[in-house]
């Protein structure tokens, strides 16, 4: 190894370190701050002087209603994901495997809706839901969430189905399966990893949703976790409870980070699907 | 992108990639059998999705269009009572937005545009740099990939709170720069805070997409360039950049569309109704939450048109690289795709 090569290698690892630091430093700061005591929350040391779970206890103070908010988030994001996947699996299969007129147009339209400004549907739906008294209900959050969850799921699944060799179904059909049976007995089991990845990506998108949940609820008991945390109140009105906000932020983010770490390979494949091929 | 060359209407069977002669003939025969009667089946499989999207996207859009022509409930001039119905005002909401309330609309419009242009430009630069580093790094690639997904996974609302804490007057940002800046108060620094937070969260996303683009460039191309004596910067400009362009453009389009509807971050980081960071989404949401549905709808219609125009411009200017990829066969192919010649592109986007 020559000296320049060594230099180049060193530079590369400095670069890698910079990328990782860039991505993790703010998150690390949230974690560290959440572990500080209220009295030294404004410390700027890189490690908490004494680890304290005071903030986490404050988050689960019944007055904050955070447990309920987590449950609401889970219900809204969970049902949205299940519904979107149910519909998207069939549509994506048709998009990947069948020939029909206007296929390109329909797929482009479906993808285009995912770029739609959410506020453009929130405004009219807010009026509609006010009229039929759906405000503060789960369906008022689930229905608008479908507008971004469904296109996302269709796009991801279409890519996954396309990656599966055509011969699978042909073999099944030669053996006497109908197309429906081939889909049910061959494609679905084999596409399970793809469906699972799509579920994770869709769930994360629905879990992170803020605008719809903010607009469609005004009762604290119906707020989802991101909305609830943004409305945390401190001891006095003018004091922002940064400590408990950071702790709650960590609690909301950790499940996602764990999922991301476990399934990073698949998620990257899902996110980059279609963009680079 | 080999098969985007066929006219859009008659796409080849999506599961078949390359197009050599004998394979082609075999495919045609297979296709006839495999797709017999698939039209009806496709309709059956696709219609639920289309139905749901019609209900949750198309119908609300038309409702907003209609609603934007109505004013707020008020005193009926004839009876003097408060009327239950909203009066029809025609285009007055739009006239008001562009005239009377114009200052607020144009401010939000420029904020939205400014955020979009600046954040997407910065994200692209940082994202491409990240992708190049990740592509070169062999050891620790898994670690980097895991790390890079963290900002993406953090909910935007939470990242708003996190940066609000970082940019707090006694926070770490001020400690690091050694100045007392009140980041979250009105002013240009509030814009800076929003941009920093947004770029942090989304640059890794561009990095991921570009990395995927880099990974399909064959090594031989670089070898040939090296033999021809091309320097590293020249290789980057003349090989890497043109070849990742499709992936990069898709990423940028997505980011643009996302930045144009920005809401969570300025709303939480700085607050509602803050002049220096109010975006069009925030404006529309604020009007709607104050039961002024007419003006709110007009704002959201204008935002929709703006987003639509930008998307259309993207597709027109940059060609089939964008939509062609979406509609076409996205299977991984062994061969390197060929760029579509210009006249073909029009055909595909049309």
TrEMBL record, chain A:
InterPro entries: BP-dep_ABC_trans_perm (IPR050901), MetI-like (IPR000515), MetI-like_sf (IPR035906)
Cited PROSITE patterns: ABC_TM1 (PS50928)
Protein's name according to its UniProt entry: Carbohydrate ABC transporter permease
Membrane topology: Multi-pass membrane protein
First-listed, main subcellular location of the protein, grouped into a coarse class: membrane
Entries under SUPFAM superfamilies matching the protein: MetI-like
Superkingdom of source: Bacteria
The UniProt record lists the keyword Cell membrane: yes
Subcellular localization: Cell membrane
Species of the source: Streptomyces sporangiiformans
TrEMBL record, chain B:
InterPro entries cross-referenced by the UniProt entry: MetI-like, MetI-like_sf
Region listing for Disordered, in residue ranges: 1-35
PROSITE patterns noted in UniProt: ABC_TM1 (PS50928)
Record-annotated ABC transmembrane type-1 domain positions: 109-314
GO biological process per UniProt: transmembrane transport
Cellular location(s): Cell membrane
Stretches that traverse the bilayer: 41-62, 114-134, 146-166, 192-214, 235-254, 303-324
Membrane topology: Multi-pass membrane protein
PANTHER family assigned to the protein according to its UniProt record, in alphabetical order: BLR7065 PROTEIN, INTEGRAL MEMBRANE SUGAR TRANSPORT PROTEIN
Name by which UniProt lists this protein: Sugar ABC transporter permease
